[in-house]
Every structure is written in C-alpha cells, then in structure tokens.
Amino acid sequence: MSNNQANTDIVPVAKSANLVSSNIPEIAEVLNLSDEIFLESEAGIDYSRLREKLQEQNWLSANNETMNIIIRIVGKKTLFTRDLGSIPLTDFRTMDLLWTKYSDSRFGFSVQQKIYHSERERLKLHKKYVSYEEIQNEFIKIVGWQKNAKDMYDLVLDLSIAPLGHLPWLNYFGCGIDYMMGCIERMMKLDLGHSQ
Asked: What's the pLDDT tens digit per position in 97-123?
C-alpha cells in the first residue's frame, strides 16, 4: 500500500476508563472517537507497524516504534523540544488515535493532554500563580513516570494496572521530560477530533 493511500480501522466508541486520580475527569467521557481511523501522514510515514504493535498490545514495541517514527519525521536522533514544530499535526493525530483506540482510551497523547490540562486547572483553583514545574510534577505523579528515569524498566507495561496516560513515554532516548511535556503542549494546539 502506498503512503498516499489511507489505511482505515473501525474504532469502537470509547468505554469508561478506570482512573488513577479522582481529580481527573472521566477521559472516556471527554474523548469522542470517530468510527474510522485514517492512517494519514503528511510526512510519508506508514503507520501499519505501529498499528500492528498496538493491536498486539505489545506496549514496549509500540512505544519504541512511536519514538522511531518521530525520529524519522524530525530527521535526527538527538531531539529537542524545538524539533516538535517539524512534526505535522496530522501525524501526531494518527499516532494518538492508534494509541487511544488500542488501549481503550487509557494511553495516548490526547489522554496525557487531558490529564495535563485537568491538573493545570485544578492547581489554578487553589493558587493565584502556578508554575510550570508544579504542573509538571503533578502530571508526572499521575501518569506514573519517574522524573529521572532513563530506561524502560521504569514503565508499567500491563494495561490493567498502568496509570492512565502512562504511554507513550518518549524519554528513554534521553530526550528528557521536557520533550514529553513539549509533545503535550504541541498537542494542545491540535483539535484531535476527540473533544467536542
């Protein structure tokens, strides 16, 4: 199948998710998945391998494939937050829809985005000024990441016990937590088609 030809998947409507924190709204209520996922790419990426890993619930391989896709799009292995601007939003959307679908709305950039936004709003209710670091620290706790983690051994790869929003986790290539936060902030500029 050529890169110009769209792949499709039938997507069930998101079901209720067991949430880690009572501070986070029901993500399944917030997400409104479409009936089809078109594996579109402005960067010429074939997403069939990522889809296959996610269908198999091989979370580690899917996480690796997601990072490899980002490296291919950016065109270099050393990544910086500023490189996120070169990743087309269409490609972010495709990666996110696949993660969201095959994890029953427990994983994906949009899930992380909703958690981040929810925590930011919650913290703002209690303080006049909330620093980026405060929001980041709360977010990291909720999704179960280790702030200084450098390898995959710190991840929970069992969907039934992994914290909501735990994956994808792109820090293992040494990109740093700021890169992940940059991904989430980039996603905030995108209407993922999940929200009303």
From this structure: 999 999 999 999 889 888 888 888 898
Q: Which residues, 6+ apart, have CB-to-CB distance to 57 below 8 Å?
A: 102, 159
- Per-position DSSP letters for 117-165, written without gaps between them: HHHHHHHHHH-S---HHHHHHHHHHHHT--TT--SGGGS---TTTSPTT
The span from the CA of 14 to the CA of 17, in Å, is 8
How many C-beta atoms lie closer than 10 Å to residue 63's C-beta? 24
CA 50, CA 90: separation in Å to the nearest integer?
15
Q: Give the separation between CA 184 and CA 110, rounded to whole angstroms.
A: 8
What would the pLDDT profile of 133-160 be if each residue is shown by its tens digit?
888 888 888 988 865 555 545 778 899 9
